[in-house]
Design goal:
The structure is a single chain. The chain has helices at 8-12, 15-29, 67-71, 79-83, 96-108, and strands at 41-53, 93-95, 112-121, 127-135, 139-148, 151-160, 170-177, 180-189, 198-207, 219-221, 225-235, 244-259, 264-281, 285-299, 304-325, 333-349, 359-371, 376-389, 392-406, 412-424, 433-434, 451-452, 454-470, 473-487, 499-510, 519-527, 538-543. It is mainly beta and 549 residues long. It has 3 domains: 37-135, membrane protein fhac (Ubiquitin-like (UB roll)); 138-283, no CATH class; 409-549, no CATH class. It has a 21-stranded antiparallel sheet that branches. The protein is globular. The protein starts with 7 loop residues before the first helix and ends in a 6-residue tail after the last strand. Mean pLDDT is 84; it is low at 1-13, 25-39 and 211-223.
Length: 549
Amino acid sequence: MNKPHISLLKYYAKPQALTASLAILITLIGFDLFAEGLPDIIGVIREIKFVRQNVFSKDENPLGLGDPYLNRLHFITRKQIIKQELLFKVGDILDQDLINETERNLRKLIFIGSVNITADKNPDGSVDLTVYTRDLWTTTIGIEFTRLNNKNVYGILIQEQSILGYGSPMSIGITNSEDGNSLTLNNLYKRIQGSRWNLTSFLRNGPDVSPVDSLPSDFELSHQTEYRYFFGLNRPLYSLNTKWAFDAQVNNQILPRKKDTSEEFLEKSESQFYSVTRVYGTRIRKMVSSIGFFKEFSDSELSNQNLKELSGKISLRALRFAKARRLDKMERVEDLELGSSVGFGIAKSGSFIKSDREYWKLSASQTLAFPSGSKTWIFQKFTYTNTLENDDDINSIREFNLKAYSQLFPNQTIAFRLFIGSRSNLDERTGIYNLRDQTGLRGYTSGDSLSGRKILLMNLEDRIFSDIKFLTLSLGGVIFADAGGVWKESESFDLSELNYSIGFGFRWEVSKSASSRITKLDFALPLNGNGLSLDNIVVLISSGQIFSK
C-alpha cells in the first residue's frame, strides 16, 4: 500500500509559514549590524603564570570557623585543568579576543567562581600573562522527602562538582520507598585524557517512582525494579574557532507496568542520537550546519513502534559578547551573547530509512540580542516548528519571547518578559500551556485551572540587590507585577481576559557554592475580581528566577 504524499509546497503557502519567514528576513536585514572587527594584538606570549585561589580568602570567616578550616576540606582546581582551557600558549601572538573568550570558557566551569587574566608587557615587547581563578565550594549533600503516588519517598543525594580538583562532576543518590531502595549514579568525565571529548553516564536501578498521571488511566505502577541507563559522548564547539563538533547518545530503560489486574509486563524502550556539526566563516560571523540521525524503539502494551528520523539544520550567526552583573545572578559575572541569528531545520521520517511513520518536520528560529545604551539589554527569540503527516499539521508550535533588563538605578535591575505561544494539534498532555505560580503567573495555583493552547504572559520585576551578606548568603529582594492568560486553540487572544497579580519577595543565594541557585520567597496577591484581601495572598518558595536570559 502506497503511503500518501506530503506536499511541502502546500505547507509553505500557509500563513504561519509566511509569518516565520518574515521574522527571519527582518533579522537578516540587520545581520551586518554586527560586523567583525580586527582583533587587538599585544605581543608575543613569553610566559603564562597561574594563581589558583581557594574558596575563602583570609579575610572571610564563614560560620565562624575561619579560612583554614573550610578550605582544607576542598580540593583546589588542578593547574592542568585551568591550563587545558587556554586558547593560547607560549610563543603565540596574543589576541585580546582570545583572552576574553578564555575567561568566558573558564567561567562556564561550574566550579570556578571568578576569572581574571592580566597581561604585563616586557621591555623586549613580549608579554607575560597571569591567570587568576577562585574556586567555588563543590560538595553538596541533599536530603529529600516527598509523597509520590500516595507513598512516602525518602532520599539522600551526594554531589561533587569537581572530583579531587580534576573538574569532573559525579553524584550518587539513594532513595527509599515502600517498594524498596533505588540507586542513581550520574557522572561526567570531561576532557578525556586531555582531549576535547566528554563522556556522560547515568544509571538508575530501583522501584519505579514515575508519577501516576504519566500513564494511561487503565495502567498502574508495578512494584518491580526499573532499570535506566544513558551514555553520551560528545566533542562540543569549545571555541569560536572550532570547525567540527560531534555528538552520540544512547538511552535505554526497562520499566515494569501492570494493566488493571493482569500480569505485570515490561515496557522496554531505547533511543539513539548521532550528529555531526560543521562551522564555516569567521570567529563572529559564521554559518553552522549539522546533520543528525535519531532512532527510537519501544515495545510494550503501551506502544510498539520503530521510529527513525534523519535531520539537517543550518543557521547564520553574527556574534558579540559583553559582561554584566546582577541581571539574573546575585554576585557572579554574567556573560552575554549578543548579536543575531537565523536558523532553519528539516527532518524526514519514512520507509526509506525503515521507519514506521512517514512525516516531515520543519523548524525555523530567529534571535536578536543587543544593548540599548550602556545600561539596558534586550533579548528576543522566535521559534516555529511544524510536523506534517498525511498532509495534515499534527504538531505545530509558535513561540515569541522578549526579555529586557535595565540598570538605571544603583543596585537595582528592572526586568521585563513578554511570552506569546500557540500550540495546535498536539497530544492533550504535551500540547497544553499551564499558567500558575510555578510557570510565571504568581498568585495562581494549579487549582485555578488556567490551561489552554494559546498563552500570553508578562512579568515586570524590580530586582533589588544588596551588599548585605549573612554568612555565605547574598541577600536581595523583588517587587513584581504579573499578567497572563490562556485560550483554547479556536479562540483569539483577548486582553480583557488577562489575570493579574502583584507582590513582593525575598532572594538569597549561597554565593560560594558551585551548585547554588537563587532561592525565591514570593508573596503574591491575585487581582482576579475577588478584592484586595490579604486572605488571598499566595506564598511561593522555589529556586531560580521566575525568568532569566
